[in-house]
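Quick illustration, no need to memorize.
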Amino acid sequence: MRHLLVAAALLTASLGAARAQDAQGEFHIGLSADPDVLDPTLGSSFYGRIVYAAMCDKLFDLDAKLNIVPQLATGFHYDDPTHLIITLRRGVLFQDGEIFDADAAKQSLMRHLSLKGSMRAGEINAIDAIDVVDPLTIKLTLKAPAAQLIAQLSDRAGIMMAPQAMATEGVNFGQHPVCAGAFAFDSRVVQDRIVLKRFPGYWNAANIHFASVTYRPFLDPSVRLSNLRAGSVDMVDVISPTDIATVRGDPKLNLAIGDGLTYWGVTINTNNGARAKTVIGQDALVRQAFELAIDRQALIDVVFGGLYTPVAQANSPSSPYYFADIKPPPRDIDRARALLKQAGVSLPVPVELMAANSPDTQQVAEVIQSMVKDAGFDLKIKAMEFSSGLSAGYAGDFNAYLIGWSGRSDPDGNMWQMLHSGGAFNYGKYSTPTMDTLLDDARTVADVAQRRAIYAEVWQEERANLPLIYLWIQKNVVGMKRQVTGFVQVPDGLLRLTGVTLAP
């Protein structure tokens, strides 16, 4: 009762402050796919992360230079390498009126760690215990030093959820999510729209300028652009590189183009159920031949107008953990055929490639299909709706999976979950003791040079086995009406609405 009475008083004060602001009505955002479940613990799509940016504040956030900055936390320090102290922001309310405090923070973190099916557990499993020091301080006891932990708490693992809603909704939390962000969940029609309403009790309400925000999925980039040009949406998450000239030539529109963290690649099912029992799943020589049949630069030129950067690793060239000597091998059909002969496989080698049913992704799949045919592969494309593809990925219902990863500022966030045997996004269940040990060891080292030395060994192991064939690093290309001001582009690609306005 005390919690609710205090919350009511705080909410009344916040309402008064909020009414002083000029809410500008509705803001509409076009997404290139519909998010999966809107549960920060169970969700796994980039598009969900875009919605969370408005709906669910985190302990920490990133700025435009990828510096970690406070959000619901005010700071942190280590008492020693395995005891992390986090201080919390005073006067924060969840969207149901509950007060955000240390106990609520503990409950959110425990849910991320322990809920069955949690996609966050592998990100923060360095945490051994969580203690409430006082109402605005928590202490995390770690199993070992964890260089990646604060960076993980700047993403979904750091999202704080309302305790009463967690208790009431349980595994159905994603149907009625309640967080501590600027906009509260209002409604959702799957594959059509997600509507959020401005939360007047938000701790930073003075910098929120819309009464509501609506997200609408448009898989086809031309349809997405048409809706932007027609004014039915105010911003879109991605403009296809081939449409950049059109946007630049439209006086009603603006572009924000910046370096991104997103990579795309082909994940091979090496160990996830019956569909891993293929020649490409069981023989690294066949996977190496498949890679050698792909000309990454030509693929990027054809589909993306040459805008993206070909890579053979997970981290972007701007990262201190990028290795300039790990370059994509040039296309070599003769060598690819020689590797298939060495592997002793019959030609053509059958492979089914699962890919989202968006036009750009299907075009990429078709270019790969044409390229690898020359080396002796018979590639069939299985088009799937994005969320259905994720489900098939987790279940191992694929041979090869064309999918992107939206990228993280710390290298652990780009590798551990995909290459470690315990990783939630290791769709193919690739598993070697060497890789697991290296990825775990890299988490315990803070020094960049020492971590680089460990990651150099990671890439030796990955390049030898090729469970994931990396293709390119993406640029962030956001389109918006010219009247939109205040948008700050961050390399993680999320659309943050703090400070954004829409002039009449």
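The chain has two domains: 2-215, 260-475.
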